[in-house]
Amino acid sequence: MSVLIAPSMLSSDFARLADELAAVERAGADWIHLDVMDGHFVPNITFGPPVIKAMRKYSKLVFDVHLMIAPADPYLEAFADAGADIISVHAEAGVHLDRSLQAIRALGKKAGVVLNPSTPETVLEYVLDRIDLILLMTVNPGFGGQAFIPAVVEKVARVKKMIGDRPIHIEIDGGVTPETAPLVTRAGADVLVAGSAVFKGGKEDAYRANIAAIRAA
Ligand code: DX5
Ligand code: ZN
């Protein structure tokens, strides 16, 4: 199984987003991971639809939008219009997960569910036929550069078993490095988000080496 690498732009230089996007694409990124934070669901604020729309002109890669906002439903259309390809909502961010997932698919986008480290995978049980992706957080969301939480590895294996032969991606987000990547890919993950581990070094050659190191692991 080939593993996709989705650099998180959260660790890029926000003053040079278009250049950073192009650099990471040339350096071997498969998808672009975009972390949207509202200062309410998570204790940090990043960017929203206008910034994603501006970035859209500079890349043809899949835009994997991770919404850390509550409520999410009022903004789904704006993220779809901005150019998101995959829109993922946290199971913890609202009480009507099924409704949010239906809304994302009705907008013609791929739908994902995100689980915080402490959230059990059982919340996925009745939405498996409505989703294209499950994003398992291996840090508490809000910031880049945090340490990987190893307890989640067991959850990855359980989710892998749970999805059976459904075509659902298992994506991992938080503290992914060449050291932690094999723990989650062995358990069944096929998409790896990496922020600080990709953008360290600050330039394209470093990004290329960093992505290659995660892929090789
Ligand atoms: C955290 C974000 C992550 C973050 C990962 O809330 O969802 O996507 O950018 O950063 P690293 O890879 O540095 O842990
Ligand atoms: Zn993320």
TrEMBL record:
It is an enzyme of class 5 (isomerase). It comes from the Bacteria. GO terms for biological process: pentose catabolic process; pentose-phosphate shunt. It comes from Hartmannibacter diazotrophicus. Catalyzes the reversible epimerization of D-ribulose 5-phosphate to D-xylulose 5-phosphate. Binds 1 divalent metal cation per subunit. A divalent metal cation binds at residues 33, 35, 66, 173. It catalyses: D-ribulose 5-phosphate = D-xylulose 5-phosphate. Keywords: Carbohydrate metabolism, Cobalt, Isomerase, Manganese, Metal-binding, Zinc. This is Ribulose-phosphate 3-epimerase. Substrate binds at residues 8, 66, 142-145, 173-175, 195-196. The active site is at residues 35, 173. GO terms for cellular component: cytoplasm. NCBIfam families: PRK05581.1-4, rpe. Belongs to the ribulose-phosphate 3-epimerase family.
